[in-house]
Amino acid sequence: MAEVMDIAKFKSTVSPDWCPGCGDFGVLTSLQKACVSVGLEPKDVLAVSGIGCSSNLPGFFGSYGMHTLHGRAVAVAQGAKFGNPDLNVIVTGGDGDGYGIGIGHFIHAMRRNIDITYIVMNNQIYGLTTGQCSPTTDLSTVTKSTPEGSIESPINPIELALVSGATFIARGFSGAQDILSETIAKAIKHKGFSLVDIFSPCVTYNKKNTYPWFRERVYSLQQENHDTSSMDAAMKRAGEWDARIPIGVFYDVDAPTYESQEPAYKFGSPAKQKLGLSAEDANALINSFK
Hints:
- By secondary structure, this protein is α/β, with parallel strands linked by helices.
- About 35% of the residues lie in helices and about 15% in strands.
- Helix 9 links the parallel strand 7 (about 220) and strand 8.
- Helix 1 crosses helix 2, helix 2 packs across helix 7 and helix 4 crosses helix 5 (about 105-110).
- The model has no long low-confidence stretch (mean pLDDT about 95).
């Protein structure tokens, strides 16, 4: 009962309105549990999202939140982190938002090793726009936009993150919430860019990559003694698909973050620095925007 009461503080007054059975419900609950387990308070967390079904998550999560433009969630999150490095910044979105229009921001944030956590609800379809092919849709999959089957090779987010500089890379499945909440907690505690790519089935438009389909295939990396410090081992596991699909932590290494090396931060968090203005000048500045 104590755990339920603690989790309640990360619940919004707005109830989720995803389709019944959507995997995003499990992601939301797992994120709430993860934040409690690492001892965070809502006032110390900012959730940022783009556009899509999954990008509605900040509205259902009890912390500061920003629902931004399509594909720009990571860019906005970086700005918030730069302004206040003490803030726990969590980006939430989907495979279309993050691996499609937002892929440029995604790569550069990993390259810089910015200390943010990126949770991608990967349903391998464009759910909000009613079922078109997404960047992670399997080859030959029939969708509204590919009636004869997709001819585009899908992006492998884990492989992309490995070669782009992310220092914490993991995968989850919304049908395995215990593993997922533990994985998200590790990602939040990690200092550096953390990616958690999550299989979050779209029960309405993706009839291939379903809960039963994943349950027959997923296995835990940590139960097979995977070496999370080895890029070679992580890359090998990242290439596994179809017959066996790994979930858990692929890669976890320590490296200097962007914030730890930026000279501007030697004076502390910009958001907490004094402006050096008198009360009169500060009020005049604020009034000039009215």
